[in-house]
């Protein structure tokens, strides 16, 4: 069984119960003000298993399903039986790292809340992009080379994070993506050695 299906199942179950019970949602979503004032740091992880609605949940888990197996394969090919453990740590660390920018930015804002697996999913997606830069990613059935999509994604996320005009965690998207790039280049020598060669031989 693909380990990503376990992540998806756990996330779906937790999100479902949280959406049925507002108290659970409030307890475990990210609230930087409470984190800094009451040391409620567990939400840096738990927020990654909650979602605002079923559309939010579906989009994140749909993306994880299609790119997570490739990312897990990198870990298993490189680290053998320890691959699943390292992939699990990678996923959890992605959630934490993705939540750091918003936590710092909104540490004095008691009204700020955040939730969702988008940061971790971005890390998984960008692991794929670095490993296979010229593979096609389909956006609304339109094929775009992975590396082109990745660059546009980073530019857009950075711009929207600074603008801050919507209710989307662009900070988390950007931080998760960068974490995915750095982690992949550090953890997988074969990807690191082949990236520029693939990039120049499209």
Written description of the protein model:
- With 202 residues, the protein is mainly α.
- The protein contains ten helices and two strands, in the order αααααααββααα.
- It has a two-stranded antiparallel ribbon.
- A hairpin with a 2-residue loop joins β1 and β2.
- The N and C termini lie far apart (34 Å).
- The mean pLDDT is 93.
Please write the string of helix (H) and strand (E) elements: HHHHHHHEEHHH
The N- to C-terminal Cα distance equals: 34 Å
Q: Rounded to an integer, what's the Rg over CA atoms?
A: 17 Å
Strand content bin: under 5%
**Overall strand count:** 2
Portion in helices: over 70%
SS content category = mainly alpha
Sheet with the most strands, sense and barrel status: 2 strands, antiparallel
Low-confidence stretches: none
Count of individual helical segments: 10
Kindly state the mean pLDDT as a whole number?
93
Order of strands, main sheet, comes to 1-2
**What form results from the Cα inertia axes?**
globular
Outline the secondary-structure elements.
Blueprint: H1 3-20, H2 22-28, H3 32-38, H4 43-46, H5 54-79, H6 83-105, H7 118-131, E1 136-139, E2 142-145, H8 146-163, H9 170-187, H10 189-200
Antiparallel strand pairs: 1-2
Write a compact overview of the structure shown.
This protein is mainly alpha-helical and 202 residues long. The chain has helices at 3-20, 22-28, 32-38, 43-46, 54-79, 83-105, 118-131, 146-163, 170-187, 189-200; strands spanning 136-139, 142-145. Helix 5 (54-79) crosses helix 7 (118-131).
């Amino acid at each position: 069984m693909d380990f990503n299906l376990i992540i998806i199942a756990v996330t779906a179950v937790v999100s479902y119960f949280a959406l049925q019970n507002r108290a659970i949602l409030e307890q475990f979503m990210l609230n930087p003000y409470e984190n800094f004032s009451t040391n409620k740091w567990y939400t840096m992880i738990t927020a990654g298993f909650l979602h605002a609605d079923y559309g939010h949940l579906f989009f994140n888990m749909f993306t994880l399903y299609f790119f997570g197996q490739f990312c897990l394969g990198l870990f298993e090919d490189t680290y053998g039986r320890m691959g699943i453990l390292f992939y699990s740590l990678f996923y959890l660390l992605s959630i934490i790292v993705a939540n750091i920018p918003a936590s710092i930015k909104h540490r004095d804002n008691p009204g700020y809340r955040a939730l969702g697996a988008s940061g971790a999913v971005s890390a998984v997606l960008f692991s794929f992009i670095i490993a296979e830069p010229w593979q096609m990613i389909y956006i609304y059935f339109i094929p775009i080379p992975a590396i082109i999509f990745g660059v546009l994604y980073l530019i857009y996320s950075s711009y929207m994070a600074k603008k801050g005009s919507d209710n989307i965690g662009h900070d988390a998207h950007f931080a998760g993506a960068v974490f995915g790039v750095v982690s992949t280049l550090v953890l997988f020598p074969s990807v690191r050695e082949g990236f520029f060669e693939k990039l120049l031989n499209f």
